[in-house]
Structure prediction request, 82 residues.
Amino acid sequence: MQEYIRKRVLDIGNYIMESSATVRQTADVFGVSKSTVHKDVTERLPLINEKLAMEVKQILESNKAERHIRGGEATRKKYQEI
Prediction:
Protein backbone atom coordinates (compact mmCIF):
# COMPACT_ATOMS: atom_id res chain seq x y z
CA MET A 1 0.00 0.00 0.00
CA GLN A 2 1.36 3.39 -0.94
CA GLU A 3 2.25 5.77 1.87
CA TYR A 4 -0.24 8.50 0.92
CA ILE A 5 -3.08 5.95 0.96
CA ARG A 6 -1.94 4.61 4.33
CA LYS A 7 -1.88 8.17 5.74
CA ARG A 8 -5.33 8.96 4.30
CA VAL A 9 -6.79 5.77 5.77
CA LEU A 10 -5.47 6.61 9.23
CA ASP A 11 -6.59 10.25 8.93
CA ILE A 12 -10.09 9.15 7.89
CA GLY A 13 -10.29 6.63 10.72
CA ASN A 14 -9.19 9.17 13.30
CA TYR A 15 -11.56 11.81 11.91
CA ILE A 16 -14.54 9.47 12.16
CA MET A 17 -13.53 8.53 15.72
CA GLU A 18 -13.23 12.16 16.84
CA SER A 19 -16.33 13.54 15.14
CA SER A 20 -18.64 10.51 14.72
CA ALA A 21 -19.05 11.72 11.14
CA THR A 22 -20.97 9.82 8.50
CA VAL A 23 -19.32 8.42 5.39
CA ARG A 24 -20.82 11.25 3.33
CA GLN A 25 -19.56 13.96 5.70
CA THR A 26 -16.11 12.37 5.80
CA ALA A 27 -15.97 12.16 2.00
CA ASP A 28 -16.75 15.88 1.77
CA VAL A 29 -14.03 16.80 4.27
CA PHE A 30 -11.32 14.70 2.60
CA GLY A 31 -12.37 15.42 -0.98
CA VAL A 32 -12.83 11.78 -1.94
CA SER A 33 -15.84 9.70 -2.92
CA LYS A 34 -18.10 7.85 -0.49
CA SER A 35 -16.87 4.62 -2.08
CA THR A 36 -13.27 5.51 -1.27
CA VAL A 37 -14.11 6.28 2.36
CA HIS A 38 -16.05 3.03 2.65
CA LYS A 39 -13.24 0.99 1.11
CA ASP A 40 -10.67 2.72 3.30
CA VAL A 41 -12.48 1.95 6.56
CA THR A 42 -13.76 -1.54 5.73
CA GLU A 43 -10.85 -3.06 3.79
CA ARG A 44 -7.68 -1.04 4.32
CA LEU A 45 -8.00 0.17 7.92
CA PRO A 46 -8.22 -3.35 9.43
CA LEU A 47 -4.88 -4.17 7.78
CA ILE A 48 -3.24 -1.10 9.30
CA ASN A 49 -4.87 -0.70 12.71
CA GLU A 50 -7.38 -3.35 13.75
CA LYS A 51 -8.39 -1.65 17.01
CA LEU A 52 -9.20 1.64 15.27
CA ALA A 53 -11.06 -0.27 12.55
CA MET A 54 -13.35 -1.91 15.12
CA GLU A 55 -14.11 1.42 16.79
CA VAL A 56 -14.85 3.10 13.45
CA LYS A 57 -17.06 0.17 12.45
CA GLN A 58 -19.18 0.67 15.58
CA ILE A 59 -19.61 4.36 14.81
CA LEU A 60 -20.60 3.67 11.20
CA GLU A 61 -23.09 1.01 12.30
CA SER A 62 -24.60 3.52 14.72
CA ASN A 63 -24.81 6.11 11.94
CA LYS A 64 -26.48 3.56 9.69
CA ALA A 65 -29.04 2.73 12.38
CA GLU A 66 -29.86 6.44 12.78
CA ARG A 67 -29.95 7.43 9.13
CA HIS A 68 -33.73 7.13 8.79
CA ILE A 69 -34.05 9.71 11.56
CA ARG A 70 -31.61 12.11 9.89
CA GLY A 71 -33.46 11.71 6.59
CA GLY A 72 -36.77 12.57 8.24
CA GLU A 73 -35.25 15.61 9.92
CA ALA A 74 -33.90 16.89 6.60
CA THR A 75 -37.31 16.55 4.97
CA ARG A 76 -39.04 18.27 7.88
CA LYS A 77 -36.57 21.19 7.78
CA LYS A 78 -36.97 21.47 4.02
CA TYR A 79 -40.72 21.98 4.25
CA GLN A 80 -40.60 24.23 7.31
CA GLU A 81 -38.47 26.71 5.39
CA ILE A 82 -41.01 27.09 2.60
User: Anything to note?
Assistant: The chain has a mean pLDDT of 90. Residues 50-80 form the longest helix (31 residues). The two ends are 49 Å apart (CA to CA).
